[in-house]
């Protein structure tokens, strides 16, 4: 019986040691440390998006790219515009209306445990552009939560535009 108790204490001690070892790793994820798989899947997502912005491309299907609350803001803004052009008069992912995107460069860093900040630089025709995309991990993979350009935050601009249309 005594040996069984010693074995049980040994197993318990090993379990506590393992839990103590894993705790910093778990806290690192919550504090914004990016896992290698996050960078890989986010980069694949972004490269897939921008591959559609070649001269012969069609752009993207918004539901495959944008996070649902941003899609809802876009739809509400368009609906509130009453048949007129809403806030969006171009494609926020290229900050353009026409495109032939080349030389895409990505820099991805953690924003928090479910979001990444991606800087996307590219050449559209002869003009260099740089955008910041805030990506959110969703049940369907990475989605664009916000687009930050020289004009500011797309999410904030849509919210503000909606307020002016409703007054």
Structure, explained:
The protein is an alpha+beta fold. 44% of the residues lie in helices and 27% in strands. It is built from five helices and five strands, in the order ααααβββββα. It has helices spanning 2-30, 36-50, 62-65, 68-80, 154-166; strands at residues 101-112, 115-124, 127-138, 141-149, 152-153. A five-stranded antiparallel sheet has the order 1-2-3-4-5. Strand 3 and strand 4 form a beta hairpin.
Overall spatial form: globular
Strand sequence of the main sheet, in spatial order? 1-2-3-4-5
By DSSP, the count of extended strands is 5
Portion in beta strands: 25-35%
Primary descriptors:
167 residues, alpha+beta, 5-stranded antiparallel β-sheet, 5 helices
Secondary structure elements and their pairing?
Elements: H1 2-30, H2 36-50, H3 62-65, H4 68-80, E1 101-112, E2 115-124, E3 127-138, E4 141-149, E5 152-153, H5 154-166
Helix pairs in contact: 4-5
